Amino acid sequence: MKKVFVISALITFLMAFTLPQQKQKIVFFGDSITQAGVKPGGYITVLGDLLKQKNIQDELIGAGIGGNKVYDLYLRMEDDVLAKNPTTVVIWVGVNDVWHKKTSGTGTDANKFEGFYNALIKKLQAKNIKVLICTPAAIGEKTDYTNELDGDLNKYAAMIREIAKKNNVALIDLRKAFLDYNLANNPENKDRNILTTDGVHLNDKGNQLVAEQMLKALYK
Amino acid sequence: MKKVFVISALITFLMAFTLPQQKQKIVFFGDSITQAGVKPGGYITVLGDLLKQKNIQDELIGAGIGGNKVYDLYLRMEDDVLAKNPTTVVIWVGVNDVWHKKTSGTGTDANKFEGFYNALIKKLQAKNIKVLICTPAAIGEKTDYTNELDGDLNKYAAMIREIAKKNNVALIDLRKAFLDYNLANNPENKDRNILTTDGVHLNDKGNQLVAEQMLKALYK
Amino acid sequence: MKKVFVISALITFLMAFTLPQQKQKIVFFGDSITQAGVKPGGYITVLGDLLKQKNIQDELIGAGIGGNKVYDLYLRMEDDVLAKNPTTVVIWVGVNDVWHKKTSGTGTDANKFEGFYNALIKKLQAKNIKVLICTPAAIGEKTDYTNELDGDLNKYAAMIREIAKKNNVALIDLRKAFLDYNLANNPENKDRNILTTDGVHLNDKGNQLVAEQMLKALYK
Amino acid sequence: MKKVFVISALITFLMAFTLPQQKQKIVFFGDSITQAGVKPGGYITVLGDLLKQKNIQDELIGAGIGGNKVYDLYLRMEDDVLAKNPTTVVIWVGVNDVWHKKTSGTGTDANKFEGFYNALIKKLQAKNIKVLICTPAAIGEKTDYTNELDGDLNKYAAMIREIAKKNNVALIDLRKAFLDYNLANNPENKDRNILTTDGVHLNDKGNQLVAEQMLKALYK
User: Fold this and answer.
1) How far is CA D203 from CA A78, B201, D49, in A?
2) Given Cys at both, which of A51, A146, B26, D126 links D155, Cβ 3.0 to 4.6 Å?
3) What is the distance of C-alpha B155 from the center of its chain?
4) Total Cβ atoms within 10 A of residue A40
5) Which residues contact C156 (CB under 8 A, 6 or more apart)?
């Protein structure tokens, strides 16, 4: 009897080190930036490559749709996220909520942005899904606060930092990461072509930076 | 055998006239216009009085919140509508979806308006709730199509008429009713004070007209 | 003495019929629609052809710049109009004043539109230049008042009609002409391709219609 | 000969200190902030008091009208500025050009802002009038770049600094002065009540600060 127990314990002990942990199923939930993330070179693809190098076999699923604002995520969450039974969801939204105010008069009021964001998180947490949320990275890469929408985007980024705190979810502060990178690498104060192709959508360096930020937050 | 059948049929026939039908529980789901509808003189209050005169004992519940757009209704539908177990829901929304484009850059894109509206109806129909939907009545009462937002409001009203058809729900065409009334009663082409106090919110005549339109649609 | 007088009077009388009247120099002052008007097939070119058929030798000068609003005309009037010593100026502006509210948040307030328009006319009239003004033709060609900007465009067209009256200048009511034409020729309620290529800019039929309207107003 | 020269030089030297210089006539040309500037406690009034203390007898004239954008200044410059034969004009405009994009869709495009501003300066300089121009101070006083319109306002302030350089006119950098003051005196990151009552219009401290900035620029 004793022998059996010892061997069994030994096996369990060894398995903990050699067998894979429960595989995570991570859904990336967002807008056009995330829609592009699953393409070759996209941030989700890059992150997948980083995971392979580390022998992590988690499943990464893109759920980005161009033009999406926070309430669009809410509308399609059941079909596009919950139906996939994820263990983890990374939400990255906010650029269109600010940008569309200017381009089509259909942005999102700050208080409603907050209301929908909280509702998203609550629905996910109610299913025991781990949630991480991101600040919007950039609409324009200038570093002297003259990108036209900097003020409003900073305001929404600040809201998201608060939402993370209040809901006790991890924050991936892409806005800070992008600004820090640009302060170091954009001496000519250009509005694009540092981490983005057009001020918003990621170029290769941008995809690399986002993948690294995600890796750090998901596997710390 | 035959006798029993005749008596049974007779009882059924009498019951149809003498026994109360199942009481309806009607939720009015909308924006500030509906929020004001439950006040003294409001359209829901007026409708309640009309029902009393007809000895109808249906329950009328106001669920309007100022500033609401179609997606705000979607966000609070479970708490404010489904939780009340209504038999019937009247949706009246759209003014803010158009108006806020101009006043704060936070209106609702046409295709997203349609998407959320369809989602609202589907969720209610899935619970076997009877749905009626209204066109937005007015933003300005001028009859020569010079109210600043007439074009866009007509466009959204046309969308709602299509949504009613496609989803097979009853339509209460308040926009048509308001225009017809103004064509007959607003010879000076005023922008308010015919059916509204400010071009949007109802005065006494407006509350009366809406109550009558609702009565006709709910009890035809 | 008497004889001389009679002969002189006779000559004068004959000259009135046989000698050319003073040649008009007409500047067409406007936005992208007028900028395209001088191209082959453009409304100014078409009007020039109509004049040649009638043996009228007036000079037609295009002074349209894409994106112009009423205050842009005011800023460049000295260089682009007065410097050319015209006898006649046709002003056609208004589409961008309305449209840019939606597309970039930089349209023109109604009261300021009126103020600049009056200032334009006064400066031209002070130089004894004959002025004709046009209503904006269309932003969308649907006939059921569901073009998104119909309300505001109708409001600005109504203002221009008033401005014409108050300043005693001729009106070329292109908005009315376009609506009448569409009511007769656009049974499918299309938003373009009747008189325009995109709801705003003229196709061949549109250029023909505008040229005819201008001809009628300039040579009645 | 020599004696005469010495005496003449002496007189000239003494006159420089004892005779009054030519009195300046300074027009302050702007929007609602300048309209309030002539009221008791307003920045022009405060500046006038400072001048009295220094025994400077220049004439200060307010020419501010609420809601004015750069093109409104251009429209009324002849009547409200040139007609007064000023020696000096201080232009302070820009808040509404940015703000009205959001509140009514009628702000001013950046390139047109620049065009009208240059035209203003050229017209004044053509009359040998000394010109000073100001950056817009604030729409919100927060110091962490989360005032909603910070980005666009910074962009327009940067344009004005360039305009000053290119036209060789003095710059009064109120935006910088306000930000510096707030960085030192607004530790709670409030959006108003430091130098303004509402984020835009000046309180007593704001009027004092602006008067001092104007004094320094006008009398250096």
Assistant:
1) 51, 37, 17
2) A146
3) 18
4) 6
5) C94, C97, C98, C110, C113, C135, C136
Neighbours of B166 (CB within 10 A): 11
* Cβ atoms D60, D47 nearer than 8 A: yes
Nearest to A140, CA basis, from A95, A192, A92, A189: A192
Q: Do C102 and A103 touch (CB under 8 A)?
A: no
pLDDT in tens, chain B (220 residues): 566 666 666 555 555 555 456 799 999 999 999 999 999 999 999 999 999 999 999 999 999 999 999 999 999 999 999 999 999 999 999 999 999 999 999 999 999 999 999 999 999 999 999 999 999 999 999 999 999 999 999 999 999 999 999 999 999 999 999 999 999 999 999 999 999 999 999 999 999 999 999 999 999 8
Q: Does A109 touch chain B (CB under 8 A)?
A: yes
Asked if D22 is an interface residue toward chain B (Cβ–Cβ < 8 A), one would say no
Q: Please tell me which chains touch B, using 3 or more CB pairs under 8 Å as the contact test.
A: A, C, D
ipTM over 0.95: no
Give the phi and the psi of residue A117 in degrees, each rounded to 5.
-65, -45
Distance CA A114, CA C28 (A): 52
Q: Which residue's entry shows tokens 């509350």? A: B207
Q: How far is the C-alpha of A26 from the C-alpha of A219, rounded, in Å?
A: 12
pTM: 0.89
Nearest to D59 by CA among D5, D20, D1: D20
Taking the CB of residue B89, how many other CB atoms lie within 10 A of it? 27
CB B154 within 8 A of CB C145: yes
Give the phi and the psi of residue B213 in degrees, each rounded to 5: -65, -40
- Comparing alpha-carbon positions, the chain A residue that sits nearest to D143 is A151
**Cβ–Cβ of B105/A108 closer than 8 Å?**
no
CA atoms within 13 A on the CB side of C199: 16
